[in-house]
Amino acid sequence: MKQDTVWHFRACLKDILNNMDNKRNTIQRQLVLDAVRELGIHPTAEQVFDHIIEKYPSISKATVYRNLSQMAESCELLNIGSFDGSTHYDHNCHNHYHFICDECKQVFDIDDYFPDICARIKNMDGFDITNHNISFNGLCRVCKSKKR
Ligand SMILES: [Zn+2]
Ligand SMILES: [Zn+2]
Questions:
Q1: The CATH classification of domain 3-79, taken from the options 1.20.120, 2.60.40, 1.10.10, 1.10.150
Q2: Which ligand minimizes its atom distance to the CA of 106?
Q3: Residue 135 Cα, ligand 2 centroid: separation in angstroms?
Q4: How distant, in Å, are the alpha carbons of 22, 41, 51, 136 from that of 98?
């Protein structure tokens, strides 16, 4: 084989492998995103992994965890903090708040948003806010009715 041909062959192979890698990454990201959306409960990484592994037993925990944190960094998902020791994720990246039930630990969306809250804090303390995470605690409707 001529050297040129060898180089060309190598370049093609590299392209193919890169492509396969990209494709696999895209599929994994989509799986993770779909799982967070399908679960719809502001799931933990553990819950996302349990959901995906039912259909795709070959996926590793490390892959799921890595994708979740990467997607939270790139704002494709929202990291809503770890109020119970594990980080929870949200597919809804729009500005909204959360209500966490002290009893059943469910996370509810509060679709209200107070846009002036960041401006007010900035004015008060001179902080530059890049992100905020507000949650309320208490009893949800179901748990409240059980307590009666
Ligand atoms: Zn509850
Ligand atoms: Zn939410």
A1: 1.10.10
A2: 1
A3: 10
A4: 34, 11, 23, 6
Rounded to the nearest angstrom, the distance between the alpha carbon of 16 and the centre of ligand 2 is 39
Q: How far is the CA of 17 from the centre of ligand 1 (A)?
A: 49
User: pLDDT tens track of the chain, all 148 residues?
Assistant: 678 888 888 889 999 999 988 888 899 999 999 999 999 999 999 999 999 999 999 999 999 999 999 999 988 999 988 888 899 999 998 888 999 999 998 999 998 777 788 778 777 777 887 777 888 999 999 999 998 7
Ligand nearest to the Cα of 103, by number? 1
Nearest ligand to the C-alpha of residue 80?
2
In this prediction the pTM is 0.78
Ligand 2 being an ion, which residues bring their Cβ within 5 A of it?
90, 92, 109
CATH class of 94-147: alpha beta
